[in-house]
Amino acid sequence: INILKKRNKASLKKAMWRIFTLYIKARDKYTCVTCGRHDTGQGMGGGHYIAKGACGNDYYFSETNTNAQCTACNLHLEGNRPAYRKYIIKKYGKKVLKDIEMNYHKPNPDFPFEEKIEYYRNKINK
Q1: How far is CA 22 from each of CA 13, 71, 107, 110, 117, rounded to the nearest angstrom?
Q2: Which of 7, 28, 65, 75 is the residue whose CA sits 20 to 30 A from 48?
């Protein structure tokens, strides 16, 4: 962790995204939550229900707002939102969907990147 503390927030965010998406893809068994496609390569990523560009760090790295998505759904269909919305309601419930839709934009300048990187590294290694 000492090495991480010397990094700036932009590089910590990039490192966090790498480890977080590895976890998300493994958690979702490399299967797109919106179309069901399975891919363990470059064709699968972490897709956001609310676009990550609009999100504060808490929702950028939210396990409910981020799920495995194939490139076609995530990029070409712009998240395949109707199917994604149904998935979130089915898996997490309407309360979680409402939370995401109401709070995604709230900034968190004190997001604990170092701790979260370590947390997801440990989850992946288990």
Answers
A1: 14, 15, 24, 23, 11
A2: 7
Q: What pLDDT is recorded for position 64? A: 98
Q: Could you give the CA distance from residue 35 to residue 9 in angstroms, rounded to a whole number?
A: 34
pLDDT value of position 1: 47
Token couple for 101: 């839709």
Q: Which residues contact 111 (CB under 8 A, 6 or more apart)?
A: 57, 58, 61
Whats the size of the chain, residue-wise? Answer: 126
Answer yes or no: is pLDDT of 21 > 90: yes
In angstroms, the Cα distances linking 122 to 20, 89, 115 are: 11, 28, 11
Contacts of 119 (CB under 8 A, 6+ apart): none
3-state DSSP assignment of residue 104: coil
Distance, in Å, from the CA atom of 126 to the CA atom of 113, rounded to the nearest integer, reads: 20
pLDDT in tens, 82-100: 999 999 999 999 999 999 9
SS3 64: coil
